[in-house]
Amino acid sequence: MSSDPTEEYNDVNEAAVADWKGETTTRERIKAIITRTTEPTPASEIAEKARASKPVVRDELNELTELGLVEKIDGGQGALYKRNDQMYIYQQVLKLHDEYSEDELIETLQELKQTVQDIRTKYGVESPAELAQQLDPDDQDGWDDHTMWQTAQKNLYLAKAAISFYDARKVVA
User: Fold this and answer.
1) Domains of the chain, residue spans
2) What DSSP line would sit under the chain, residue for residue?
3) CATH number listed for the domain at residues 5-83
4) Which of 63, 96, 113, 125 is close enough to 162 for a disulfide, judged by CB 3.0 to 4.6 Å?
5) pTM surpassing 0.70?
6) Contact, 138 vs 72, CB < 8 A?
């Protein structure tokens, strides 16, 4: 007698959800979900993902909106919510600023620029989009380089912003 793999998979998911609920508060789960929500989404969907009641989710989302962490958008038939991307970027930059010295950030910036330059030179292109256009679907190394370039580019922007915070503190201090 064999077991149904779908049934086992559902049990694993249910176990993971049970662990998540046991290890976090409702508010922590809501924050975890909204932080990854980049498209306007109804509170009911966020409640379902966070395994929380709709009234609690609405209250928390309204509080997070007042703090500027969440954007509330009129969806015509009700409010939609998504993370405030500007605040999310700001938090990421502050985290880098707090965790790394200015010299470490400058060193990282140099390494990231070198990574981007190496990929540009390797493929003779100027952007990740241009690289994607020339890659074959089965060129795994090329797609890995494409992903690495996109990640390096994102991290470059964040590192530059964190370095700018050091510069701004010198001006303000």
Assistant:
1) 5-83, 87-172
2) ----HHHHHHHHHHHHHHHHHHHS-HHHHHHHHHHT--S-EEHHHHHHHHT--HHHHHHHHHHHHHTTSEEEEE-SSSEEEEE-HHHHHHHHHHHHHHHS-HHHHHHHHHHHHHHHHHHHHHHT-SSHHHHHHH--TT-HHHHHHHHHHHHHHHHHHHHHHHHHHHHHHHHH-
3) 1.10.10.10
4) 96
5) no
6) no
- Residue pair 87/69 in contact (Cβ under 8 Å)? The answer is yes
Residue 123 in contact with residue 145, Cβ under 8 Å? yes
pLDDT attached to residue 20: 76
**pLDDT score of 1 more than 50:** no
102 close to 163: Cβ distance less than 8 angstroms: yes
- Name the residue with higher pLDDT: 21 or 139: 139
Counting Cβ atoms within 10 Å, is residue 2 exposed (0-12), middle (13-18) or buried (19+)? exposed
pLDDT for 46:
95
